[in-house]
Amino acid sequence: MLSTQREMEILTLLNLSGSGRILDLSRRLNVTEETIRRNVRRLEEQGLVRKVHGGVYLKDWVAEPSFAQRYKEQPDAKARIARTVAAMIPDGASLVLDIGSTTAYVAQALKSHQNLLVVTNSLTVAQALTMQNGNRVFMAGGELRSHDGGAFGAEALAFVRQFRVDYAVMSSTAIDARAGFMLQDMGEAEFARAIIKCAHTSIMAADATKFGRHAPIRLCEPDLFTRLVTDQPPPADIAEMLTQAGVGTVIAD
């Protein structure tokens, strides 16, 4: 795990373009270049970055598609996964839904449910479930990101930590046999870790294209999840990882 808040801030800045100059990072974070170099050395030891002369690169970085693009990918699989997740959640339940595109499908699948208490940092989720069937919807505050309508940062984290809910439903960028569930964005990872702590049951909703992918941010120990809902059986090595972690795999119909 990252040892300092500054290391998380460095990774967040690097995730914007995949790389950065030591000088620019020191100016953005208002610390000395030597301080940044020390943080970068620790990140390099953890295998998260690669240091070069005067700069640093985020390992395994690729630009993540926009939310609109991701929402259009694998629509049939995501819809099946969403219906399966929705069937696990009874009327009157409380839950947190994150910013993922698959989670947005889950919100649509929940529109016939009644009296839900929904906590989210996603404008898409909030719009789908507010003013529906007696639901109560709580939206995290702060600036909404232009590319996905998500709220992140200290305000969103403080907000969500006030709740204790029955379920947390989230999605991931990648599922790796060694690292488990992974994300592209540090802010999303921080929010996901926070909502796992708020929930009695945590459900990962991810289609089979995530199997074997890699992303720069490890979410958490996989055993913090109760179930993975997906559309195809995972490869043998990932299935073994899930079994060892005690994560049940549910294949959507």
SSE layout:
Blueprint: H1 5-17, E1 19-21, H2 22-29, H3 33-45, E2 49-52, E3 55-58, H4 67-72, H5 75-88, E4 94-97, H6 101-109, E5 117-120, H7 123-129, E6 136-139, H8 154-160, E7 165-170, E8 174-176, E9 180-183, H9 186-198, E10 199-205, E11 217-218, E12 227-230, H10 236-245, E13 248-251
Parallel strand pairs: 4-5, 4-7, 5-6, 7-10, 10-12, 12-13
Antiparallel strand pairs: 1-3, 2-3, 8-9, 9-11
Helix pairs in contact: 2-3, 5-6, 6-7
- Give the proportion of residues in helices: 25-40%
Counted beta strands:
13
Number of helices: 10
Taking all Cα atoms into account, the compactness measure Rg is 18 Å
Going by helix content, strand content and strand pairing, the class is alpha/beta
CATH topology of the largest domain: Rossmann fold
The CA-CA distance between the termini, in Å, is 36 Å
Return the CATH class of the largest domain.
Answer: Alpha Beta
Largest sheet: 7 strands, parallel
Return the string of H and E elements: HEHHEEHHEHEHEHEEEHEEEHE
Task: Give a written overview of the molecule.
The chain is of the alpha/beta class and 253 residues long. The protein has two domains: 5-58, Arc Repressor Mutant, subunit A (Orthogonal Bundle), CATH 1.10.10.10; 67-251, Rossmann fold, CATH 3.40.50.1360. It is 40% helix and 21% strand. It has helices at 5-17, 22-29, 33-45, 67-72, 75-88, 101-109, 123-129, 154-160, 186-198, 236-245, and strands at 19-21, 49-52, 55-58, 94-97, 117-120, 136-139, 165-170, 174-176, 180-183, 199-205, 217-218, 227-230, 248-251. Strand 5, helix 7 (123-129) and strand 6 form a beta-alpha-beta unit. The two termini are 36 Å apart. The mean pLDDT is 90.
